[in-house]
Amino acid sequence: MIILECYKTLQQQWRYSAEHWSHPCIVPLLHYGFSSLAAQYQPMRQILPPLTPLAEDFDSHVYARMLQGYIKNNEPTKGKTLHCHIFKKGNCFDLFARNILLNFYTKNGLLSDGVKLFDEMPERNMVSFVTLIHGYSQSEEYDKAIDLFFRLCKEGHELNAFVFTTILKLLVRMEWAEMGWCIHACIHKLGHDTDAFVGTALIDAYSVCGFVDVAKEVFNGIIERDMVSWTGMIACFAENDCFHEALVLFNEMRIEGLLPNNFTFASVIKACLGLEAVGIGRCVHGCVLKTCYEMDQYVGVSLLDLYTRSGEIEDARQVFEDIPKNDVVPWSFMIARYSQSDHCEEALDLFLQMRKGLVSPNQFTLASTLQACATLGRLDVGRQIHSHSLKVGLDLNVYVANALMDVYAKSGNIEASMNLFVESTNKNEVSWNTMIVGYVQLGDAEKAFQLYLNMCEEQVQATEVTYSSLLRASASLAALEPGIQIHTMTIKTMYDGDDAVSNALIDMYGKCGRIKDARVVFDIMSKKDVVSWNSMVSAYSMHGLGSEALNIFEDMGKTPIKPNELTFVGVLSACSNTGSLDLGQSYFASMKEDYGIEPCMEHYTCMVSLLGRLGHLEKAVKLIEEIPNDPSVMVWRALLGACVAHNNAELGKFAAEHVLEMEPQDESTYVLLSNIYANAKRWDNVAFVRKSMKRKRVKKEPGLSWVENQGMVHYFAVGDDSHPDIKLIRGMLEWFSLRSKRAGYAANHDAILLDVEEDEKGRLLWLHSERIALAFALIRVPPGSPIRIIKNLRICIDCHAAIKFVSKLVKREIVIRDINRFHHFQDGFCSCKDYW
Fold this sequence. Notes:
It is a single chain. By secondary structure, the protein is mainly alpha-helical. The protein has 43 helices and 6 strands. Strands 2-1-3-4-5-6 form a 6-stranded mixed β-sheet, covered by helices on one side. Helix 10 runs parallel beside helix 12 (about 225-240), helix 12 runs antiparallel to helix 13 (about 245-255) and helix 30 (about 530-540) packs parallel to helix 32. It is elongated, with a radius of gyration of 38 Å.
């Protein structure tokens, strides 16, 4: 309604003239209501001039100057006392002095007294109206300010530059800057558009709206541009990402001979940051030093922003040391930038220096310091800051509360984080995201999804952080259906084009067995970063599609994006999964030679696995000996797995001893060592290993397979007969066995590492969990749909062969993800090409 009234008034009321309102409103003096103040300020009468009985001797301008002094020195008590004194003398202020008094009340936050004074003024002019409009604006009573502006227009008062700049600033504060068009039209009619004062206000309004071209036209129309006008236009360019134009205009300003001020420099430095032109920024810094603005807080913070975002942390620290530090702003800014740029130790050190300097932190300081604590895992410091926030009453501030949740969640104390979340009275989307991310990072994906449902019930808008975290949760569970639903939500909310969301989608589809969908997401990304390329390389590698993974890596080399350590982990893993020894050795060598990347433990693990699985066990051992640091447990596990594949019991025992030395309770190592002995028919050694497990209370993880169907997950163990569909499952298994044998399938009894009869081994093979899961899926999953099975252990060699036959018999794609990789079975073939 106010906007509509604004349009009507601006179209109809500008033409009102003073003769329509020729009768002033005279209000009786008895209505003033200020006499009661006189008794409160009797002790201060010595500050006032002596009373004179005659109003003719009253000098209104003397008292006005006194009021101006009280305004300047922020002395409201003396100003009120003076008003009481004047009231007793007969209230003989003229209009000029009354306006000064009105300004006194509005400037000191005494708006109600100012309104009473305004209403009781026997006459008013433009200054009276504008002064009260300023008061309403400062008190954020914007509706009343607009109404008063309409009243000013209707009463026919002068519309000059002072009025127009006031209303333009009011519209900007109200976020109604678009209404500036109407005000601009009136300004143009009255010929004020060439005034520098008015033009700068118009530039500011158009800048907020993003109308840079219109602002430029206004700037060009100003006849005598001053430094404020130039600064306003430079700021307009910088705020609207026209960084090059801002620098060009700054040069023109210098050519005109005008000296920049602190606001000019702040905008120019922002333009340098936007262009990533730190060199030009240094030149501007030199100009700052020459004009002695280096001690200004606005300029100092802008320079800090330039150097920290450009990675020049040392230069930023030098600027910080040179600027005044008696205010919390530069401390908070520097701590925040340290925390955001992985210099968390420096952030904590700076926070301690700040406390020693007796500067009180605000909510932003505490939030940034807590971010550093979360990154470093410094729960001890986080708890101390939590205690401090309780003492100063900032614990319920949303920024501090969110940062505290993050500290506790990343330190593994998710219960404390949840308690803070529940107690928070002003949660925002960051609060919800912090908890969702915390649960995802701790591996509790189900709690993360439950929180998301609660978030939707509370009608809190999800963000790219929400969606990317939930997609990671889906990937960790290999839960395709929730992942697809989240993908749908990202499309509806226009977040599917976000880089983080797209990267999470690639990861989710890759880990859920939908490699083609992962590639589609990758191909439609408009801007790929190193995470995008790494995700695609790793996805192809995980699916045993080594050539595709290496092709992606070669395509990456044609872009400006440089590979990092994770890129080569995916590349070497692809070589290992496909047995590409020459390529693997070539890439391993090129890491350091061509890219300057020192091999880390993950790279050595991939190379040991590559050499070992191809039977080069001695070369694998030699490579382990060349590792600069102590080999990790993953390196020895890779060697142990190779020994199992090649039945090398002695070397396998050697590798197992190293694994158990680092992780004595690792059940998989005992199982692999037992399997080596069983393959060698060394049953005494098998019995010894199992007794060792029993003595050390190490339990073997049971083999499980599960299938997701219609939103439900069905789990199956070895020989499982607890499922409601067990009769149908058994019938399907018998059909598998019969048809597979007719098709040429012959059971490999070596897959059963038990000392039992051959017939019993053949029966046990059909009780493996992946076969039971496959039988159930063929019964319940609609025809034509791919079958997806997840297994927590490595698929056995016989099940692998049997499922190849089944895929040909039923003519369906069967995707099995075991602990190492994916297997895509179709038409009697597997994507791994029998190398896994």
